[in-house]
Design goal:
By secondary structure, the chain is an alpha/beta fold. It is built from 14 helices and nine strands.
Length: about 290
Amino acid sequence: MKVFKNEKGKQLILQSYDKLLKMWDVEYIEEDIQTTYGMTHVIKVGDSRKRTVIMFHGVGDNSAIMWLFNAKELSEHFYLIAVDTIGGPNKSIPNEKYNGDFNQIKWVDEVIDGLKVDHPSLIGVSNGAGIIQNYGPRNLEKIDKTVSMAGGLLYGKRVSVSKMLKVFLPEALFPSKKNVIRLLNKLTGEDSAVFTENPALMEHWMLLLKYFNNMSMGFHKMTPLTDDEVNNISKRMLVMIGDEDPIAYSRESEDLLKKMNINYLIVKNTGHAINHEKASLINKTIIDYLK
């Protein structure tokens, strides 16, 4: 299955990706890791002698846009490795086995093994939060702590398709500047200007909506956690959700976090782009929790 709708769109997205990566304002190294399901691209930032933090982005974006406002400050405290999720609009390249028999846990395991790092902490946003919750509780011996953002607990009911469609449609089908602004206003809280007044971010969002084939992420299946798995990871997990997140937040999701004794933070006046909208708060909270 094609990740990009056409070659022109792919090149435009990757050019914009490189532009955003330079805006991180840190020195970085890009590397590729071979896995069963194709080549996985990673970005390394910071001193490798510091504690390792591996980061996973959302379903329709990539590392370059996801960590734009986090990489510099976090890299002062940690050795960061941002993973381009295979199947996403990024520099990872899936092979025919990805289309045929993809196992997300096996893929993450091979990425971590290929990185040759010891007991990393894992951070994920949105779909990335699901990835680390799908992997972490089933591989406790390999990881340290986890931080999930803009994603509820991987337990019980998942976000319904109808809820997702209500958020993204009709704007995502017609990615004009006006519609992208409308969509971002639906997704974010009081700080939507962090996107709408940033030309580079707006350009990248429009390209992603126009040229990324969302179906290519459909092979990422996640299994809800059992009670025992939640209990085993609860002391090593922090969940952060914006109270205006139209996808991840509900009163029921907050009640579930309380019931399962998960460390959590509900961030006021904040939407789905939590680590962009409230970057300073999120960076400080991550640093304090992981250290």
